[in-house]
Design a protein that fits this description.
Blueprint lengths: L14 E5 L16 H4 L2 H9 L3 E5 L16 H11 L3 E4 L5 H8 L6 E4 L13 H8 L4 E4 L10 H9 L2 E4 L1 H15 L5 E5 L4 H14 L2 E4 L2 H9 L14 H12 L5 E2 L3 E5 L9 E4 L8 E5 L1 H13 L2 E5 L12 H12 L3 E4 L2 H9 L8 E2 L4 H7 L5 H4 L4
Parallel strand pairs: 1-2, 1-5, 2-4, 3-4, 5-6, 7-8, 7-13, 8-9, 13-14, 14-15
Antiparallel strand pairs: 10-11, 10-12
Helix pairs in contact: 5-6, 9-10, 11-12, 12-13
The structure holds adenosine monophosphate.
Length: 394
């Protein structure tokens, strides 16, 4: 795909409109709980400022559903950006309209303005052409650096890109696409996918896509239960998606044509329910009691999965191996995080829970690449072309 990058443009004295993903988690007081997404935007911002651009920053925050919600204002992001860049950040109370246009047009070279939450307008998520045109009025150059939102066809990610001639990806988006392509489109082999999390139904397309492309897929977490059920196991009170059992069966049959391509848990940590962490036992998957729930992978599975991980040249991980939010059921996820980190292979981790897991395990620095995308990362793994990237094609 022919997509240009911010480094390809002359930005001197130009109004450079940058879409970022500043959708940061806030605490009850409205303070930013984790500024990773802001920090990872800094490279693109500094690059544009150093090239003499007049910088217009745009993002969404949360789901205001087209209403002005003061608690979802981007003002705290402006404050944090200003601290991180040690530079004054102007703030516009809206993202379109005559006042905003005049603020943008009076920017001097190297100055930065952050626009208010673009989702305060309901048109944004509808990819409304008129609203896209209003955003496009603010841009001589359009840069999309919001990988986390690249799977959404909205005005600020797709509509505007169709209207601005000079357009491309920012440095973070470029890095994301290069690393994900390295792991997924053109990987060093053997390549392993580790998929966990709650539901098969959420990740069915990923499972099919990576089973077709990768040498082996390791399945853990709640979704493994549905696969074990499809193999005829009794899972007691474990989380199971009954309507996905036949789909799981089909996937198992497809995988059987390539021996060793699908690996399911052999043992699990069970308890009467997730809140009874003191009442656990480890059992093989064919001996789960009728009143028990499988809530984590067991030590034999950890060891088997880790052996496969050590032999892989490329590893892609999405989704926890158990209810890792609870101490009693986090061991499997933590051990898999450590195994991925210990690998000499190229490792990519994406999705909120998996990223939290590698941070919690204290191994995030040893992962080759941590994606900032949740939904976008998943759609990339499904093999889809992300609309926010496609819209930048020349
Ligand atoms: P997902 O968003 O699909 O990646 O799912 C993440 C959630 O799956 C986490 O909140 C985990 O607590 C949950 N989960 C993982 N394993 C299990 C399990 N064995 N039973 C129930 N929930 C699980």
């Amino acid at each position: 795909m022919a997509v240009r990058c911010i480094t390809d443009f002359d930005m001197y004295d130009k109004r450079v409109f940058c879409r970022f993903d500043f959708n940061v988690p806030l605490d009850e007081t409205g303070a930013i709980r984790d500024d990773t997404r802001i920090v990872r935007a800094l490279r693109t911002i500094k690059f544009a400022v150093n090239k003499g651009a007049k910088l217009i920053l745009c993002s969404h925050l949360g789901r205001p559903k087209g209403e002005v919600k003061p608690e979802l204002s981007l003002k705290p992001v402006a404050t944090r950006l200003s601290e991180l860049l040690n530079q004054d950040i102007k703030f516009a109370d809206d993202c379109v309209g005559p006042v905003v246009l005049s603020m943008v047009n009076s920017l001097k070279r190297g100055e930065i303005i952050l626009l208010e939450n673009v989702r305060f307008h309901s048109e944004e998520t509808k990819n409304d052409p008129e609203f896209s045109a209003k955003l496009a009025q603010l841009a001589d150059v359009y840069i999309n650096d919001a990988f986390g939102t690249a799977h959404r066809a909205h005005c600020s990610t797709v509509g505007i890109a169709k209207l601005v001639k000079l357009k491309g990806v920012g440095l973070l988006m470029k890095e994301e696409l290069e690393n994900l392509e390295k792991a997924f489109s053109n990987p060093k082999r053997p390549v392993i996918g580790i998929i966990g999390g709650a539901k098969v139904s959420d990740k069915i397309n990923i499972l099919k896509s990576i089973l077709a492309r990768m040498d082996m897929v390791l399945i853990g977490g709640g979704m493994a239960n549905t696969f074990l059920k499809a193999q005829g196991m009794e899972l007691g009170n474990s989380m199971i998606e009954s309507d996905m059992v036949s789909t799981a069966q089909q996937i198992i049959q497809t995988a059987a044509t390539r021996e060793g391509s699908l690996c399911l848990p052999r043992d699990v940590v069970v308890a009467p329910d997730p809140n009874r962490g003191s009442d656990t036992r480890i059992t093989s998957v064919d001996k789960i009691g009728s009143q028990e729930m499988a809530l984590d992978i067991g030590p034999i599975t950890v060891s088997e999965f880790s052996d496969h991980i050590q032999k892989a040249a490329t590893i892609v991980w999405n989704g926890p191996m158990g209810v890792f939010e609870k101490d009693a059921f986090k061991k499997g996820t933590m051990e898999i995080a450590k195994a991925v980190a210990a690998s000499d292979g190229f490792s990519v981790v994406g999705g909120g829970d998996s990223v939290r897991a590698v941070v919690q395990a204290g191994v995030s620095k040893k992962i080759s690449y941590i994606s900032t995308g949740g939904g976008a990362f998943m759609e990339f793994l499904e093999g889809k072309v992300l609309p926010g990237v496609a819209a930048l094609e020349m």
